[in-house]
């Protein structure tokens, strides 16, 4: 393993250090292993997998990791993208395609600067990477706060999964050489987790269904994504989400029966 200093093998990132790298429905074990290798190269350790096509654990992933086994051994498996981001407060979605939705856009360097601020406030964040063949779906992207777009040749922006992870991870590592402290949120408030937001979306959408606002079946998916994006852009704090639940209850006169 050229480039590995065995005297420092036990040094490196602790479990859960840095943003989570979330691979959504990765197809090849080799790409998972190569992504883990890129992560450890750059001091990242938290890998989350959503429904890997060829199952998990995967021997081909171990072979391709070339010594980054510790990342693979700690990888967490999830049944859905929503479950994989539930505990996070900020989520970025790596994509090379234009999306028919209003989202903030950041380069890897800009995204990392933001993540460093979140880390200073102890607010967990992560980056979604889609499957090799088609990338993230719009239903995955709507869970994110910001699109992460690598500035490349507009005529050919396609990256291998591990390449995409490496571009982001390298920017994270560079930023670690000159960390910037972040300010604490006012009053000790913390940003809502994705689970808290998803619970609110379920509450709101249930009432919109009941009142007939979402009655046109063919338009419902797009309307739901637009409504969710609206609240994603608001950067809601946890107490603000609780207030929104209360507003819905007050307007409808119906208690929220969380399933």
Description:
The chain is an alpha/beta fold and 259 residues long. It has 2 domains: 160 residues, SPOUT methyltransferase, trefoil knot domain (Alpha/beta knot), CATH 3.40.1280.10; 65 residues, Orthogonal Bundle (Helicase, Ruva Protein, domain 3). Strands 3-2-1-6-4-7-5 form a 7-stranded parallel sheet. Helix 1 runs parallel beside helix 7 and helix 5 crosses helix 7. The longest helix is centred in the C-terminal third of the chain and has 18 residues. The protein is globular. It starts with 19 loop residues before the first strand and ends in a 7-residue tail after the last helix.
Topology record:
Blueprint: E1 20-24, H1 29-41, E2 47-50, H2 59-65, H3 69-73, E3 76-78, H4 81-85, E4 90-94, E5 104-106, H5 108-120, E6 125-129, H6 138-141, E7 146-148, H7 161-176, H8 194-211, H9 220-232, H10 238-252
Parallel strand pairs: 1-2, 1-6, 2-3, 4-6, 4-7, 5-7
Helix pairs in contact: 1-2, 1-7, 5-7, 8-10
């Amino acid at each position: 393993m050229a480039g590995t200093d065995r005297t420092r093998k036990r040094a490196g990132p602790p479990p859960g250090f840095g943003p989570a790298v979330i691979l959504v429905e990765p197809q090849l074990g080799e790409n998972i292993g190569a992504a883990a290798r890129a992560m450890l190269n750059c001091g990242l350790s938290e890998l989350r997998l959503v429904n890997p096509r060829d199952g998990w654990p995967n021997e081909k992933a171990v072979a391709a990791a070339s010594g980054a086994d510790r990342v693979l051994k700690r990888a967490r498996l999830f049944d859905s993208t929503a479950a994989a981001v539930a505990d996070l407060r900020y989520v970025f979605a790596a994509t090379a395609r234009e999306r028919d939705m209003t989202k903030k856009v950041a380069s890897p360097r800009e995204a990392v600067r933001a993540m460093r601020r979140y880390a200073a406030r102890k607010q967990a964040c992560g980056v979604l990477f889609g499957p090799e063949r088609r990338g993230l779906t719009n239903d995955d992207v709507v869970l994110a706060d910001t699109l992460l777009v690598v500035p490349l040749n507009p005529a050919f922006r396609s990256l291998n999964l591990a390449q995409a992870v490496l571009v982001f991870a390298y920017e994270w590592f560079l930023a670690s050489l000159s960390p910037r402290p972040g300010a604490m949120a006012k009053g000790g408030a913390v940003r809502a987790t994705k689970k808290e937001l998803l619970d609110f979306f379920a509450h709101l959408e249930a009432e919109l269904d009941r009142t007939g606002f979402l009655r046109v079946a063919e338009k419902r998916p797009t309307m739901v994504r637009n409504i969710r994006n609206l609240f994603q852009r608001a950067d809601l704090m946890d107490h603000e989400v609780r207030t929104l639940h209360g507003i819905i209850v007050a307007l409808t006169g119906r208690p929220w029966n969380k399933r």
